[in-house]
Design brief:
Helix content is 24%, strand content 21%. The chain has 82 residues and is α+β, with helices and mostly antiparallel strands. It is globular, with a radius of gyration of 14 Å.
């Protein structure tokens, strides 16, 4: 897991972060980082999970990457979350 105590993301942003060219960093963002990461992990049969809090006293984001030991069993099945 990789987590931060940044400003987090509202649901509207969260719903699109894995799409190409989606960025909220107007001057510096390209919007390819998470899209490429998700594509790579998916090609290995895994998936990326994300949780984020953007309102209230605490905020932050946590990413988790699940990868299967081999390509035959999906990481979602192993985690029991598929
Ligand atoms: N740790 C994070 N905290 C808050 N927002 C994030 C975080 N990681 C990603 N995001 C959001 O997801 C968007 C897409 O991220 P990414 O694909 O890496 O592209 P970029 O970094 O070029 O904007 C960011 O613009 C931002 O809105
Ligand atoms: Mg990025």
């Amino acid at each position: 897991m990789v987590a931060d105590t940044g400003h987090g993301m509202p649901q509207m942003v969260l719903d699109h972060i894995f799409e190409p060219f989606i960025t909220t960093k107007e001057a510096t963002g390209i919007g390819l980082g998470l899209w490429v990461s998700d594509e790579i992990v998916r090609k290995h049969g895994g998936w990326i999970g994300v949780r984020s809090l953007s309102e209230g006293r605490v905020s932050g984001t946590a990413f988790e990457i699940f990868l299967p030991a081999n390509g035959e069993v999906g990481a979602t099945d192993v985690a029991g979350l598929g």
